[in-house]
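Reopening this ticket.

The earlier resolution said the output was attached, but the attachment link was broken on my side. Pasting everything inline this time so it's all in one place.
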Amino acid sequence: MAEAIFNHLASGGMRAISAGSRPANEVKPLALIALKEIGIDTNVLKPKLLTREMAELADKIITMGCPEACPAVGKPMEDWGIEDPSGGGIEEYRKTRETIRRKVEGLLEVLTSESSY
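Inline output:
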C-alpha cells in the first residue's frame, strides 16, 4: 500500500518501490479494495523481493516494522512501525491505509522541502 500511495501522491519525479524480505505471491485482495476506494490503480502492484541492489539504489529506506530484515547499505532508514493488517477485515486495511497515507504525506513534505534548496 505504501508504494501505491506514495506514487499516487508524489510529484517531481519522485517514485517509491516497495519490496519485502518474504514477499507474498500476490497483493492481498483487501489491500487492493482499500486502495481502489481512494482512487488508486492497483493493476501495477506486484510483490517484490527486497535485494541488496535495490536497497543500494534507494535514496531512503522506510520499513514497516521490521528494520532488521532490510539489507544494511548505509542509507537513511526510518521504521514506521506499522502492523500488518492481514487477518483483519476491510476496516483494518482502511486504518492501515490511512496511517500509511499520513506517513507518506509527511515524508513528501520533508522530501519536497529538501529538494527546494
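Reporter confirms the inline version is readable. The beta strands are 61-63, 77-79. The longest strand covers residues 61-63.
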